[in-house]
Amino acid sequence: MDPNDSWSQPRKTFKLRKSLATAPSTGSNTKQKSISQELLNAKKPDISDNDRPVMTATDSFATPSPTSRNISTSNSNKRRNPFGNVENVTTSDDKRRRLSDNYFHDNNKATNSPDMSPSAVSRKATAFTVVADRGGGGVQASNGLGSDYRPLPELPMDWSLKNRVTFVSSRPWLWGEHVSSVQVASSLTSNVRCLEITKGKHCLDTSATSKFYSHTYYWQFPTLPGVNLFPRYRQSRLDKISLGAELFRAANSEWIQSLQSVYQLVKAGQCPYFYVCTQLFTCLFRAAGISGSQQILALISPTTSGIRAALTRADVEFTLPLRKVGGDDGDGADGGETADDDCCKPDKDGASDILESLGIEANSLPGFAGNAAGAKNTTKSDVILDGRSDSLVFVEGVECQSLLNYLLNAKLSQGPNELPPTILAPVAFPGATLKSLKVKENVVGGKGGQPKTFQIDVTGPILPHTVQSLTQLSATYSQDFTLRTRTQEDTFGLAAFTLPPDSQAQPAFASANLNDCGLSEKMLAKISLVEAIKDDKVIRSIHVKQNSYKVLEEAIKE
Questions:
Q1: What is the residue-averaged pLDDT of the chain?
Q2: Residue 445 belongs to what H/E stretch?
């Protein structure tokens, strides 16, 4: 570069200055201020009314100072979270609250919250107020139900057999008559293998229909195609069945083997209970630990003086726990009556001895106990007690083996060809057949101004744990429904029985003894609880709402 050449000022188009003003600047400070002001005006975002941040209760309503305005303007240039709202980035108080904070929060935050008025806060707080239950001494949520509602887990264990159970709801049920092949296979596998559909490693269908039908199976012996062998009490229709003497003798032989096998299962804790249904009575065997019992026990209901006399001759020690003190019996005997009482003494009449030598109970014949020869040794208590629920017989411990021998040797078969009694159990035993309850779906009403209701009818020999399981499952999927049952008449005494205090054990003993009984953990915990002393534990008609139940008045009148 030639030193003689002078430096020339570049043209204005090459000036590194961003200025929109056309007038010449007066000074450097004025130029810098105009440039900064123009840059701020150019970078100021255009915020619509929908995008403007919502002012919370903690924000100040005073006019912001220039310093605070500059800070808020600079913060708006930051990149926002694409998955968040504008309210989530303006202030820290607008963060999402936990579920518990929505109902149990400070009064200041509740009052200052823009989306919650004081009236709404009071309503939510009232809905979750915890009150003391005066009836049971427990604690329950105030859900608007009356004091006559009890928690559904406190539903008593009804040991009577049911012929029909009906579930009525104003909304359609998730299960009905039509079941897919996958649901049938899953429910059947769950019941036979004693699996819980909701637990464990398996590939079973977990739908509500599969859960429902998994509780509708039971095991029965004997079975005849087209012949209903339940109920058996006072059923004379089976007397006309004639399939050949050889077939019935084979059935009797298998019945003896099945009865011995299922008794051993109960004795070992592999089966919780089973029923023996005859034309004269129904016998229930329960394993040790059921309802808090220390050892195996058996209940027979109803009984007559002839049956009690036969038990006495078979050296079976028993008591009559439901016999009322004084009352209508006339002799003032207490509830602990034993086999040595007058009602258990056998008749000494010659005709009675002849009939009993042939294996026929004298009092089982209609009109025989009413004649002069048969009734001369019958006391007043015998006449009143026979055939009633108060005549229930209680056998406990080693005496159950003597009772089993009596059932094996007694002439309990029915019909000219000796059809053996029916055995019902919740788990499999030798010779038993797996059968299912009949499920029928009905829609009632819907015309003429009548409300439409959806009914599920379950018919068959419904065992106690089945009623509990179906009720708990229905309460899971329906918050408001009605349950109606029809109880077998000869099993009312089984539900009225309460275990004596001297025969009760700790619940831990039951859970340890019945781990492999075939019932679920929840049902095992329910069935092993010590029964409370109540006047009536028979489930007839109840209303279930919000996991609580109430006994209906129609059941009380009945």
A1: 74
A2: none
Whole-angstrom Cα distance, residue 465 to residue 363?
34
> Please, are residues 514 and 528 in contact by the beta-carbon 8 Å criterion?
yes
For residue 374, what are its two tokens?
A: 């048969």
From the list 390, 418, 439, 426, the residue with the least C-alpha distance to 519 is: 426
Q: Which residues contact 466 (CB under 8 A, 6 or more apart)?
A: 215, 216, 218, 426, 437
**DSSP of 99-148:** HHHHHS--HHHHHH-TT--HHHHHHHHHHT-EEE-TTTS-EEE--S--TT
Q: Which tokens sit at 497?
A: 């029985």
pTM of this structure: 0.69
Radius of gyration of the chain (CA): 40
Q: Is the pLDDT score of 70 beyond 70?
A: no
Amino acid identity for residue 251 in this structure: A
Task: Compute how many other C-beta atoms are within 10 angstroms of the C-beta atom of residue 23.
Answer: 6
Asked if 410 contacts 359 with a C-beta cutoff of 8 angstroms, the reply is: yes
pLDDT tens sequence across 363-376: 555 555 544 344 44
Let me know: does 180 contact 207? Beta carbons within 8 Å: no
CB 400 within 8 A of CB 260: no
More confident residue, 459 or 19: 459
Tokens encoding 37: 């002001």
DSSP line for 266-305: HHTTSSSEEEEE-SS-EEEEE-TTGGGBSS-EEEEES--H
Could you write out the DSSP letters of every residue in 327-390? TTSSS---TTB-TTSGGGPPP--HHHHHHHHTT--GGGSTTTTTSHHHHTT--HHHHHHTTSGG
Q: What is the pLDDT of residue 412?
A: 79
**Over 80: is that where the pLDDT of 402 sits?**
yes
Contact 286, 272 (CB under 8 A): yes
- Decide if pLDDT at 249 tops 60: yes
The position carrying tokens 């032989």 is 253
